[in-house]
Specification:
Belongs to the resistance-nodulation-cell division (RND) (TC 2.A.6) family. MmpL subfamily. It is built from 24 helices and eleven strands. The protein is an alpha+beta fold. Strands 6, 7, 8, 9 and 10 form a five-stranded antiparallel beta sheet that branches. Strands 2-3-1-4 form a four-stranded antiparallel beta sheet, sandwiched between helices. A two-stranded parallel ribbon has the order 5-11.
Length: 753
């Protein structure tokens, strides 16, 4: 592996114009594809294998022509204090708005008058009413004129003293990330400048990462309509791709500068940097790809697409790092090194020329990383206990995790959808915003009317039911639908119990009458989704951790090091989940992170955090511990190897972590709760994993294990493939080639400058 990548690095350095041209061409092609692609018009959500999805599929089959993809809205009215919405002047105002909406757009499918005697939509106390609006197209296909017509509905009523709020998905827009995303990239640039002391060296990772992300996100945008990619797919791919792209470039540029400091020629330094640090990048990227692609085992299309799209962006980041970075290093010349270091080396070279000494590079010097590693090795037990106990305390809120899918009730209280949600809840009951849709398959039933009466009668007896609407059969008479309005709010345990009670009743009816009863609707889908997430979490965790364990065992030629890496990851991800619960569910420091309305954690969050954080956590493990392994293989003691790893890796890993935290934290400013929560969760998880687990717990455990950390049974060592990640074979080959060429050893005794 190292030898192959060494050749790629040297080739890219020599043929830098060709390599750069290829990547620019790819970026242009992807950009044109994104610009000319049709806009994604669907944000579909399905959960294969669940009852709610089976009911949904049955509705599409038995009720042809009634598309469930159309947008919908509710215009909610509340009469002025002391008045009724049914008063003649108020009722006339509402009916006028019904007519206004009907004439306001040709995209409208139906507008339901709240005073229609067949389907009244007025609260029992007569103070609240709502207009139901449905559209022929999805929310993403609505024109601005249609949106404006909906937004302006009720302006006159507001002026007359009525409260008018609008809910539903018709006004849904693409999420905004805000200025904080740009701030994250700016922070990354500042960190790179501080780390390298050179604007050119700092700019390289940013430019190459943006090229890789640009190609990836443009490709996703171009394929969004064809592959039905959700609005969050490109955002997640951008988030992951930008973070790993900067980090991978950072590690290769850092190693290149280290090779220059040892006296290598620029092309040789580029080859060695890609051969060694590039090997770590490839395997680190593989762990991220495994974690993201592993989301396919959950068998939920939206998660599968998000995972594969993000994994593709990571692959691009790896390819950019091992090809475009060495090409750009060729363009950068000596400016890749800070002016201060160039002057110091020039002075050292002049002194060496005057004294006749041979100067190849700088002698190793102590830095913050070496001092920290020695401190940890002197007090490994104390550091280990402090790290484990600290993260354990932060993880405590995770035990109170409540999961659900967001609805308008999770919106900030200042928004119109949230106000509409609260008005409906106050006027019609807490369960009105989460109706259950019952679907009865009557194909195998002999007495259909009796079956429907029995079903609705039994459901109405349930203590958690407020209203059961009369069944509505289809034209063929083989299917009927009805609505159940729970007494309790949609995400309550009582409503979840009600859903299971109705399904149990359906099992009884199927055995007795042949009729099949299904429960669907947003609330039932939410319950099924959460249950499926819970069921999939452990198998997914076992698959991802198992595959990555095998991969790390190949990289490190050890059993205990991969085991320690996996356990450290579990500690950091549970602590991060605890922090997410504390902020987004309990509301602690919610104002600081823009959380206006605490509520359940999105069902997708735990499994998504496991996938993404595991891949990123393994990045730091590979980058930091590979350098230790390299030093150990080259003859250093376990203690010296830890110090060497921190001398070369601590500053770079710290910079990489700060950059990744800044990039993820930039998405906390998103207007969409899911993106905000993911950004916060990933940022805090990287902080815990990089600075507590990898920088403190890892050296403490390695210090306690000593040589045992690198133990591997001989039979297993022979069975595992050797990819030479630490570059030992590459080093021997290059030293041998240099000796045969008569040019003397390439690595000579260094002279301190």
């Amino acid at each position: 592996m190292a030898t192959f990548l060494y050749s790629i690095g040297r080739f890219a350095f020599r043929r830098r114009r060709l390599v750069a041209l290829v990547w620019v061409a790819l970026l242009a092609i992807a950009g044109v594809g994104a610009a000319t692609a049709s806009t994604a018009t669907s944000n579909s959500f399905s959960i294969p294998g669940t009852e709610a999805q089976r009911a949904f599929d049955l509705l599409e089959e038995r009720y042809p022509g009634q598309s469930a993809d159309g947008a919908s809205a509710r215009v909610v009215f509340k009469a002025p204090e002391g008045e009724k919405i049914t008063a003649p002047e108020n009722a006339a105002e509402v009916s006028g708005i019904v007519k206004e909406l009907q004439d306001g757009s040709d995209q409208i499918a139906s507008v339901a008058d709240p005073f229609d005697k067949k389907a009244p939509a007025v609260s029992q106390d007569g103070t609240t009413a709502y207009i139901s609006v449905t559209y022929d197209v999805s929310s993403f296909e609505l024109t601005e004129e249609t949106r404006d017509s909906l937004k302006n509905a009720g302006n006159d009523a507001r002026e007359g003293g009525m409260t008018v709020e609008i809910g539903g998905d018709a006004l849904m827009v693409m999420p905004e990330t805000g200025i904080t995303e740009v701030i994250g990239v700016v922070v990354a640039g500042i960190v790179l400048v501080i780390t390298f002391g050179s604007l050119v060296a700092a700019g390289l990772p940013l430019i190459t990462a943006l090229i890789g992300v640009g190609i990836g996100v443009s490709a996703i945008t171009a394929l969004a309509s064809v592959m039905d990619l959700g609005s969050t797919t490109a955002t997640l791919a951008m988030m992951i791709g930008l973070a790993v792209g900067i980090d991978y470039a950072l590690f290769i540029v850092s190693r290149y500068r280290a090779e220059l400091a040892e006296g290598r020629e620029r092309e040789e330094a580029a080859g060695r940097a890609v051969g060694t640090a590039g090997s770590a990048v490839v395997f680190a990227g593989l762990t991220v790809v495994i974690a993201l692609a592993g989301l396919t085992v959950v068998n939920i299309p939206i998660l599968t697409k998000m995972g594969l799209a993000a994994a593709g962006t990571v692959v691009l980041a790896v390819l950019v790092a091992i090809t475009l970075i060495p090409a750009f290093l060729g363009f950068a010349g000596e400016r890749i090194v800070s002016r201060k270091d160039r002057k110091a080396r020039k002075a050292a070279a002049e002194q060496a020329a005057a004294t006749g000494e041979v100067l190849v590079g700088d002698a190793p010097r102590d830095n913050g990383g070496t001092r920290w590693s020695r401190f940890v090795q002197r007090r490994p037990v104390m550091v280990l206990l402090a790290g484990v106990i600290g993260l354990g305390v932060i993880a405590i809120p995770a035990a109170s995790l409540e999961m659900g899918l967001p609805d308008d009730g999770a919106q900030p209280t200042s928004t119109s959808p949230r106000k509409a949600y609260d008005l409906l809840s106050d006027g019609f009951g807490p369960g009105f915003n989460g109706p259950l849709v019952g679907v009865v398959d009557l194909k195998n039933s002999d007495d259909q009317d009796a079956v429907l009466q029995r079903i609705t009668g039994e459901i109405q007896k349930n203590d958690h039911v407020a209203i059961v609407t009369p069944p509505a059969p289809n034209e063929a008479g083989d299917t009927a639908t009805f609505q159940v309005i729970p007494k309790d709010r949609p995400n309550s345990t009582e409503t979840e119990t009600l859903v299971h009670d109705i399904r149990d009743l359906g099992d009884t009816l199927k055995s007795e009458d042949g009729a099949e009863v299904y429960v669907t609707g947003a609330t039932a889908m939410n319950i099924d989704f959460s249950e499926k997430m819970n069921d999939a979490l452990l198998p997914y965790l076992a698959l991802v951790v198992g595959l990555a364990f095998l991969l790390l065992m190949v990289v490190f030629r050890s059993i205990l090091v991969p085991l320690k890496a996996a356990l450290g990851f579990l500690l950091s991800v549970v602590a991060a989940l605890g922090a997410v619960v504390a902020v987004f569910q309990w509301g602690w420091l919610g104002g600081l992170f823009g959380v206006e309305q605490p509520g359940p954690i999105m069902s997708v969050m735990p499994i998504l955090m496991v996938g993404v954080v595991f891949g990123l956590a393994m990045d730091y493990e590979v980058f930091l511990v590979t350098r230790m392994r390299e030093a150990y293989v080259h003859g250093e003691s376990p203690s010296e190897a830890i110090t060497t790893g921190f001398r070369h890796g601590a500053r770079v890993v710290t910079a990489a972590a700060v950059i990744m935290i800044a990039v993820f934290a930039g998405f906390i400013g998103s207007s969409e709760q899911m993106i905000k929560m993911i950004g916060f969760g990933l940022a805090i998880a990287v902080f815990f994993d990089a600075f507590v687990v990898r920088m403190a717990i890892v050296p403490a455990v390695l210090a306690l294990l000593g040589k045992r950390a690198w133990w591997l049974p001989r039979w297993l060592d022979r069975a595992l493939p050797d990819f030479d990640v630490e570059g030992d074979k590459l080093r021997k080959k290059l030293d041998g080639d240099a000796a045969e060429g008569g040019s003397g050893k390439e690595e000579r005794e260094t002279v301190s400058v």
